[in-house]
Design a protein that fits this description.
With 264 residues, the protein is α/β, with parallel strands linked by helices. Helix content is 47%, strand content 15%.
Length: 264
């Protein structure tokens, strides 16, 4: 029981101010979880108000997880609570579009800090307590981009491939611990991702997109069903995943490049 007297399970969600992360938090609130939600932008406070309207307790951490200090800000709040973490959603991420030799080094390094280093840092610090408590669930937001090399957003696709491999490996290591790990693999989703990544003029940005609420629901259901991964939500994503298994790497890169190329 936490200091406020709640006996609800505690869920921690990063990148929860909008998009898939917002709906992950919303879905968990609907399932009766108290929340610690984290994002860099001010919209995290509006997200918290929406979650509180579902009758759960919500604690907000507004910080930049692309910095080590930001990760430690979140950890101080989570580890300072009396209630243990039962659900951990490592969702925060960013894209960076353009040919690798032209993109900013600072932007690429920031992407790696947020997409790769922050999830590893948080998992390293929070998983031991979950294992000691003999239970818990972890959801890692990877991407369908993980199954193919990603020309024109090379660091993004590589970061998502890292997260998929990381989730599957840690899941195996924890198979007898009571802690499960699930990778969520969305395809193009109707969020602000393409604008923030500088991909608004690409072919993929004009393709049909999944509703982030549907993607989040797929992820939460897969996590509770103890699936190792889930390709969400549409048949297009499942087709891309199948192609990712069958094609040689140069062919995968060519297919992916046709999607990330700027529209004529």
């Amino acid at each position: 029981m936490n200091a406020a007297g709640s006996q609800r399970p505690l869920a921690v969600i990063t990148g929860a101010s909008s998009g898939i992360g917002f709906h992950l938090a919303e879905e968990l609130a609907r399932r009766g979880c108290d929340l610690v939600i984290c994002a860099e932008d001010d919209a995290i406070h509006q997200a918290a108000q929406a979650m509180r309207g579902l009758g759960v307790q919500v604690e907000v951490v507004q910080t930049d997880l692309a910095t080590r200090d930001g990760v430690e800000d979140l950890l101080r709040v989570v580890q300072g609570r009396e209630d243990p973490v039962e659900i951990l959603c490592l969702n925060a991420g960013v894209g960076n579009a353009g040919p690798f030799v032209e993109t900013s080094l600072e932007d690429d390094l920031r992407l790696l800090e947020l997409n790769v280093m922050a999830p590893v840092h948080l998992a390293k610090r929070l998983l031991p307590a979950m294992v000691s408590g003999n239970g818990g669930r972890v959801l890692v937001t990877s991407s369908i981009a993980a199954v193919m090399p990603g020309p024109r957003y090379a660091t993004y696709a590589a970061s998502k491939a890292f997260l998929l491999s990381f989730a599957e490996a840690v899941r195996y290591e924890l198979r007898d611990s009571g802690v499960t790990v699930t990778a969520l693999m969305p395809g193009p989703t109707d969020t602000g991702f393409f604008d923030r990544a500088g991909m608004e003029d690409t072919v993929v940005s004009s393709m049909p997109k999944d509703d982030p609420a549907d993607v989040a629901r797929d992820g939460i259901e897969a996590m509770f069903d103890n699936e190792d991964h889930v390709v969400a939500h549409s048949w297009r994503n499942k087709l891309q995943a199948a192609l990712g298994k069958g094609l040689p790497e140069p062919a995968k890169a060519r297919v992916h490049a046709a999607m990330t190329h700027e529209k004529d």
